Every structure is written in structure tokens, then in C-alpha cells.
Q: What sequence folds into this?
């Protein structure tokens, strides 16, 4: 038996921390002991049942995990190896990592970088890994430090927090957009040069506006993304990964055909291993562990359900790390 955060939907939805029989673990070629997991926005949606994230029942929640391999029939993984897992439909269609044990596919796993402990890897989690994918998207499309301001929306969230720290460390001038004026000092501690009230971007705006941003990392979608695109400078790049405001995009082709703006979609769930490894290698090089620690709240598994609700209520900043190991 092992402890897990189990989601059930037989006589109505139920989320509970309970004991689960190891015989119930799903198929997979690697069985792991999870030392730490985390709460991402998608985990919050699943645990609070606010969106149809879960597609098979019952489901163990948790799209992220880090820990140690117990058993493996996969050629690349052996007992004692340390791993990081992000995405791949885990916590949606395959039992996840908010549990003391998990059975996963070896092809989904990334070697835990030597620069990080399992706890630090989960302080990064899918949110931080997504932030690095966004930074790489800006770099790969030619946005360089010193070329102008970079806007980060949803700045107090997990992706936004890590993106600010990464971009600032790389020499970019970062403007953090948030609706939480009380978090200005936190965002400036991470490196934001200034704070922008999210209300300045969230209402319908003109399809073509004054140029400002050399690059954008957007968590929000909808009118916020449309306005960010309309304000992006000639040749600028917008990396979009979220839909906190909505999945619509009420814009026109004008930023693309008159300013040569590039809109890059960033997906972390099904990204190939080579892209994942590149992101984790860069995180190990570019993310300050001390700065990472300022973003972290650590909770035991028993507190994960309440923390997920707080995340959905907008009461969480930075990253929530969930402790599984005794």
C-alpha cells in the first residue's frame, strides 16, 4: 500500500488522500518512489474539478514528480537512478505523481540534473520548465538582451515567477504584469524592473497599438494576448503558453504582416525528450537556486487539496512543492 491523492467520480466527484494498493498501479516499464511533487495550474483544475482535465477514473493526481527509480525494465533506467517527470498526460489519462509511488514509461523521464535536488526540481516543475521553453523560444527567434523590454503576464504564477528570474539573470529588462499590487516587492526581488497593472491589458483594445515589447511571455490569452501582440515591436516575439483569461484570441493579422511579429505556441506536455533535456540543462545553468527558493511554499501531501483550492482562488504566488518522502 502507498499514500496517494486519489480523484474519484462514481457517486459524484471526490478528492482524497488515501491508501492505494500497489497492485492498482497502471502499466509502465519504470516504477518509482516519488520524493516530491508539485501543484501546477492543471493540477489545481483537476483536484478542484473546475475543468474536465481528468479523462479516466479513478485517477491519481499530479503531472510532475521527482525521486528515485525502484524497478525498471527500460534500458535507460535502473534502480537507484534519479529522475524528473513532467506532463505526458500523467494525472489526466495515466496515474500521476501526487503519490508515494508511481509507475511510468521510461521514455517520459528526464535524468535529474546534478545541479538540483528532487525538491528543487519540483520547485521548478512543469511551470519552471515551461518558463524555460518560453525563454528558449524568444532566444531562438532572435530576441536579445538590450533590445527592449520583455513583458511577462501572469507574473506571480509559477511560470511567470520563474520566467522573470530567468530573463533577468540573462540580462533582459522585464516588465511584470499582475493584478496583485501587493506582490510588487516580490516581483522586483525576482528581477522585474517595473510592474504593470494587468487591467492595462485585459480589456478589448485596438488591433494595432504603440510599439513597446521586444518579447512577451504570456500566460493569459484572450484580450491580454491580443493587446500584447498589438504592442509588440517590429520583429518581436510572443511566446504563448496559457489561457488564464480565456482561450479566445480577438486580434487581427496586422501585427504579423505589418510588424513581422512572431507568435510562438509553447507546449510542455508532449514536448520531445530532446527539447525537455535542453530546457532542463539550461535551467541547471541559468536559474539561481537561491532565487528559486524565494518562490517556494512546501506542503505535505495531506495539505495538497487545500493548496490546490487556494491556487484556483488566486491566493498562491510562485510554486507549491508537495513533500511525499518521510
A:
Amino acid at each position: 500500500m502507498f499514500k496517494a491523492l486519489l480523484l474519484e467520480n462514481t457517486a459524484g466527484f471526490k478528492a482524497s488522500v488515501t491508501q492505494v494498493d500497489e497492485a492498482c498501479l497502471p502499466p509502465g516499464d519504470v516504477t518509482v518512489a516519488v520524493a516530491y511533487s508539485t501543484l501546477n495550474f492543471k493540477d489545481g483544475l483537476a483536484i478542484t474539478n473546475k475543468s474536465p482535465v481528468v479523462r479516466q477514473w479513478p485517477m491519481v493526481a499530479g503531472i510532475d514528480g521527482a525521486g528515485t527509480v525502484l524497478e525498471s525494465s527500460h534500458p535507460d533506467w535502473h534502480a537507484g537512478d534519479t529522475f524528473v517527470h513532467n506532463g505526458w498526460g500523467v494525472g489526466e489519462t495515466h496515474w500521476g505523481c501526487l503519490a508515494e509511488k508511481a509507475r511510468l514509461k521510461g521514455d517520459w523521464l528526464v535524468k535529474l540534473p546534478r545541479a538540483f535536488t528532487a525538491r528543487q526540481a519540483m520547485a521548478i516543475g512543469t511551470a519552471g520548465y515551461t518558463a524555460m521553453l518560453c525563454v528558449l523560444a524568444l532566444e531562438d527567434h532572435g530576441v536579445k538582451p538590450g533590445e527592449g523590454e520583455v513583458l511577462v503576464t501572469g507574473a506571480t504564477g509559477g511560470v511567470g515567477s520563474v520566467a522573470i528570474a530567468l530573463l533577468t539573470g540573462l540580462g533582459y529588462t522585464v516588465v511584470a504584469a499582475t493584478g496583485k499590487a501587493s506582490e510588487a516587492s516580490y516581483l522586483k526581488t525576482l528581477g522585474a524592473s517595473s510592474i504593470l497593472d494587468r487591467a492595462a491589458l485585459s480589456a478589448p483594445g485596438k488591433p494595432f497599438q504603440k510599439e513597446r515589447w521586444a518579447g512577451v511571455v504570456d500566460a493569459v490569452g484572450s484580450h491580454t494576448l491580443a493587446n500584447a501582440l498589438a504592442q509588440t515591436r517590429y520583429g518581436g516575439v510572443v511566446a504563448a503558453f496559457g489561457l488564464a483569461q480565456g482561450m479566445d484570441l480577438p486580434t487581427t493579422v496586422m501585427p504579423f504582416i505589418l510588424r513581422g511579429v512572431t507568435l510562438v505556441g509553447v507546449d510542455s506536455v508532449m514536448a520531445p525528450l530532446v527539447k525537455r533535456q535542453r530546457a532542463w540543462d539550461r535551467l541547471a545553468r541559468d536559474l539561481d537556486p537561491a532565487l528559486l527558493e524565494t518562490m517556494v511554499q512546501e506542503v505535505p501531501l495531506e495539505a495538497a487539496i487545500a493548496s490546490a483550492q487556494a491556487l484556483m482562488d488566486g491566493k498562491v504566488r510562485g510554486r507549491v512543492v508537495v513533500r511525499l518522502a518521510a
User: Anything to note?
Assistant: Residues 118-140 form the longest helix (23 residues). The CA atoms of residues 296 and 319 lie 5 Å apart. The mean pLDDT is 95. The chain has two domains: 2-112+295-323, 126-265.
